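Quick one:
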Amino acid sequence: MLFSALIRRPVEYVTKKTRLPRGPITAMFTVAILCLGALCLYLLSSFVFYRLKDLMDALPRISEMLLADLTVMETRLDAWLHELPFLKDVPFISLRSLLPSSLPRIDAMGVVSTLSSAVGSIPSILFTTVFIFMGTFFFTVQHDEIRDFMSRNIPPKAYSAAKDLRSFLFVSVFKWARAQLTLICITFCELLAAFLVMGQPNAVILSAGVAVVDALPILGVGTVLIPWALFSFMTGGFKKALWLILTYFIILCVRNSIEPRIVGKKIGLNPMITLLSMFIGFRLGGFFGLVFIPIAVLSILQLQELGYIKLWN
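Output:
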């Protein structure tokens, strides 16, 4: 349905201009959008795979650096805490003992089992791909017939509620989501520039991760950058701590100045409800639940506000 919604208007435009049959035009656009989607997925997967490979190769060096930094931090923290009279004789947990004694090793049999499972899922992937292709084709070609059938067989109030909800979701929610994606890209570029100036390894992966955290409700870049700056300060990395604090304030100022212009009217859920919806969705359906459960909750709230349902006062 999503692919069909993306190509339906271009198909109607080309069909009207060229006066060619709707079927071949729809098939052409269906193949084009599925190939584009597959290409984007392949490029993204390749990028993530090689970045993770570089990260795995660097894990021993990162572990040694982290152990050294924790040693310095523990020494400074112990010296500071033992200066307090009431904590002078209190034993503290060693921070180094919290780290694993050795890096996890790759299980060869686990790799073989994973590869076998992947090979076994190929028929299901092929069937799903064909189903998506045919579903996109028929949803596009028979859009008018499907809409007329639903309008004849759905009660008028329910059909009106569905139309209003569709308008709300496609016009408001997706505009808001597009604005949030723009803010994520801007934050990613700011973080990447700062990390490259700092000479931070794996700058791309770190920038992407912090930018995603910034998009989550209640959380923000400060959730990562401020503890990181404190850790760097405690381990003697005063310059890095200063850079991280400066980066945080720059991102905060830029976001506060451009967010009202990009986002406009906010239509999101209450932050606490959003957080609960995302957690429940992730526990129930993984990534897809993380995305769609908040949208479902927002849809229920909109139907309640429009007066189509009455679930609470």
